[in-house]
Amino acid sequence: MPILSYLVLPQAGAKEQLCADLAAIEYCEIIPADNEEAVVLVTDTPDEETEKNLQKMLKNLSSLQSISMTFGHNAEL
Amino acid sequence: MKLNRRSFIKSAAAGSAIAAAGSIFPGISFAGWQKQEDASGNITWQKAPCRFCGTGCGVLVGMSGDRAVAVKGDPNCSVNKGLCCVKGFHSVQALYGKDRLKKAQVRKNGKMVEVPIAEALDVIADKIKETITKHGKDSVAMYGSGQWTIPDGYVASKLFKGCLGTNNVEANARLCMASAVTGFMTSFGIDEPMGCYEDIEHADVFVTWGNNMAEMHPVLFSRMLASRKRKRDVTIIDFATRTTRSSQASDKSILFKPNTDLAVANAICYEIIRNDWVNWDFVKKHTSFHKGKTNIGYGTEDHFSFKDKPEDISFEEYKTFLQDYTPEKVERISGVSAKDIKYLASLYGDPSKKVTSFWCMGMNQHVRGTWINNLVYNIHLLTGKISTPGNSPFSLTGQPSACGTVREVGTLTHKLPYGVVMKEGARKKAEKIWGLPAGSIDPKPTYHTVEMFRALDRGDIRFMWIQVTNPMITMPNLNRYRDGALKEDRFVVVSDVYPTPTTDVADVILPATMWVEQEGMYGNSERRTQHFDRIVPGPGDTMSDTWQIIEVARRLGFEKQFPWGEDEYIGKIWEEYRQFHDNPKHNMAPYEVLKARSGVQWPFVNGKETRWRFNTKHDPACKKGTDFDFYGKKDGKAWIWARPYEPAAESPDQEYNFWLNTGRVIEHWHTGSMTRRVPVLHNAVPEAYVELNPEDASDLGVVNGEKVKIISRRGSVTMKASINGRGVPPRGMVFVPFFDESYKINEVTLDAFCPISKQPDYKKCAVRLEKA
After folding, report:
1. Which of B6, B28, B33 sits opposite A36 (nearest CB)?
2. What is the separation, in whole angstroms, between the first and last Cα of chain B?
3. I need a surface site. Which of B22, B240, B346, B380 has the fewest CB within 10 A?
4. In this structure, are B134 and B40 located in the same domain?
5. CB A5 to CB B13 under 8 A?
6. B409 and B453 fall within a common domain
């Protein structure tokens, strides 16, 4: 049951699109910065398999320029 | 409601990402976070000021049931606009250390024994009575803190100065802010900065004087970096005695030899005059020139006394005085190149640039602390760069209420909430508000902090009550003062939240509530008073420091002066205290206004906060018809002082050939009694160390992590070496942070102080090193 957080940077001018893309994905909660092109992403998935699928989806987002993990927790470890 | 662990972890995850974002994008704001968390329904958020420095960041404390589980920056607080530093983010964990003091203890037959708190309070009251009967009223003392809430300090002053009639009230802010106070008083006749944090967004140039803001005031440093990033033509100069994280982030780092900032400040003024960068209109209308005594001593002997004798001088005499401070002469004294001195002068002198100077302990913990404060004001006054947005000589405070409780309430031996004990009008005002007979307050100050602990050692003081501070780590020349506290027939009461080396010397320990376990107010560096509610219950028998004093006062027969109920006392105390400042120069906001907002700046006049004092456009206390009114002085002018360079009390010599400089690290608050109980902070910096210059380390044959013995004429400490760590001293200097009670570096330091402010100099004494 992993909980992870990331700092996510959008492609130039694509912050709104990135927020929309992330908000549409299950298990994702976002906190957009008010004054910078950056978004905090918190993911909360039920199992490892779902987590792997989610990470694949994130990597394929065209609005996303970079994603850096800032926190990781897995109750099963 | 039971704590939802998963929500807590998600909140921590979000907090971690936000903290990471803050380090990459200074000034970044996530105001939407609060909305999202509220929507979850699991955590509710309540406002409070952070308690871990004098910046006064607004935080939101996340509550789950009756437990504080998270912290985030308050986006509605203008101080930090949603930012927090690493101490702030983890601050609630400091409430829940495993060894929290929950029961009162009294020493019986040499051993500390847990007792009901009422019994401990009885013992304290009886001991105060007994001591006064045997040794007189000046044999009892209260030693408090810049972490006292405003009500804590107010009732302490009312009890000791008013009811008991002794001026034996001091606070640890004497160790951190006294030189700033005497600097303000001698230059402006009134305490506390004229500007505010908004200066950061207006300034074009920042000069930080001996001030490692990146670690000590990280949120304000972030605001500076954000302003530089946004405006692009902002310059930050780090003027210091060692290289730090602040130096690395600045545009230019200039190192000077200890104590020679006095000479450099004078050289800057010399250059300003030589190049005719003086703002003559401002200088002629709003300043006057003065000199005081010189060769004023260092206070290392008991009963040291000093009184300055100000004399008027002309501008021409001041100009002649500065002839000793040409950049070339000062280069030889300070090690700062004449070119760099001229560069600094050109930044201050350029009429198109707005300049803000920041300082904190580097200038205040200084044997000529008052003088260096005066000299930096001189620079701003000569150029007229003061009291306008972006032009600000700005003394930062170290503690959350050094300003609010110590400077404004006046918890120093000579002070009252309004004025000083020496003034009859001030005494009468206090006696009237406190409902005491005329003559209750003694007109003579007694002991400043160092002398108070000397008096305890000598036996002139027999009873001392210590609240919210840990002097058995922080007093300089510590061995003497710890031995003094342990002498026969000394009685020490300590109110604290965790066991410390100070509770080790106590005869009574009172378990205190901490921060948001009680209602209170702090006052920050920019004249902002910040109210916080009791958000969480304190554990066990813990009691607020204010209420402890009230309970003892009632046992001493002062029910009339302390009549309030437990559900109302903070509001009642505030409204009583506010009467002392009922004038346009210092008016404080009403209780209800404080409760509603994330801080309110004083003077609060006609419902409006004052951003820039002494400026007629902004400050309603100014006389009409002039641009500026320095109303603290009778002549309405700010004073420019001729103050010379004089050396430190103790400098390296053949036997003790290194400077010792002490200070803090970002992860730990003061003596570490709280932050060392927060696992993240403790693990980040688990023990103190000694920073060495790499070449000195090589000469000594020491590599990183090897032990070094630091020896002074007063004591020694052995600790690990840090070489090319976060700070790098120049050759001939070592630096030690003081947070770690396992390595009491103040057993090594010297109890010399500024003769005017009586603030000790923790930045300069002589030591020698041995490979251990």
Report:
1. B28
2. 55
3. B346
4. no
5. yes
6. yes
Please tell me which of the candidates A29, A40, A71 has its beta carbon nearest to residue B12: A71
Contact A4 B36 (CB under 8 A): no
Among candidate residues B177, B224, B521, B622, the one labeled active-site is B177
pLDDT in tens, B75-123: 889 999 999 999 999 999 999 999 999 999 999 999 999 999 999 999 9
Taking contacts as CB-CB distances below 8 angstroms, the residues of chain B near A68 are: 20
Residue position matching structure tokens 């104590």? B259
Prediction pTM value: 0.88
Examine the domain organization and report whether B202 and B343 are in the same domain: yes
Q: For B222-261, what is the HEC assignment?
A: HHHHHHHHHHCCCEEEEEECCECHHHHHCCEEEECCCCCH
Q: Which residues of chain B have a CB within 8 Å of the CB of A3?
A: 6, 9-10, 13
**Is B176 a catalytic site residue?**
yes
DSSP sequence for B109-121: TTEEEEE-HHHHH
With respect to residue B574, please indicate whether it lies within any of the assigned structural domains: no
* A33:B25 CB<8 A: yes
Residue B602 lies in a domain: no
Contact (CB, 8 A) for B125 and B562: no
Q: What is the mean pLDDT of residues B239-268?
A: 98
Query: Chain B partners of A9 at a C-beta cutoff of 8 Å?
Result: none
pLDDT digits (tens, 9 = 90+) for B113-130: 999 999 999 999 999 999
With an 8 Å Cβ cutoff, are A29 and B10 in contact?
yes
- A48 touching B, CB under 8 A? no
**Are residues B658 and B769 in contact, defined by beta-carbon separation less than 8 angstroms?**
yes
- Does B399 qualify as catalytic in the annotation? yes
Q: What is the CATH number of the domain that holds B353?
A: 3.40.228.10
Contact B695, B731 (CB under 8 A): yes
For residue A70, the chain B residues in CB contact (below 8 A) are 13, 16-17, 19-20
Do residues B216 and B351 share a domain? yes
> Do B279 and B146 sit in the same domain of this protein?
no
Q: What is the largest CA-CA distance in chain B?
A: 74
Structural domain range at position B88 = 5-96
Burial B633-655 (b: 16+ CB within 10 A, else e): beebbbbbbbbbbbbbbbebeee
ipTM score for this prediction = 0.95
B398 is catalytic: yes
Closest alpha carbon to B736 in B754, B715, B757 = B715
Q: What number does CATH give the domain A2-74?
A: 3.30.70.920
pLDDT digits over B273-322, tens only? 999 999 999 999 999 999 999 999 999 999 999 999 999 999 999 999 99
Decide: helix, strand or coil at residue B667: coil
Judgement on whether residues B343 and B375 belong to the same structural domain of the protein: yes
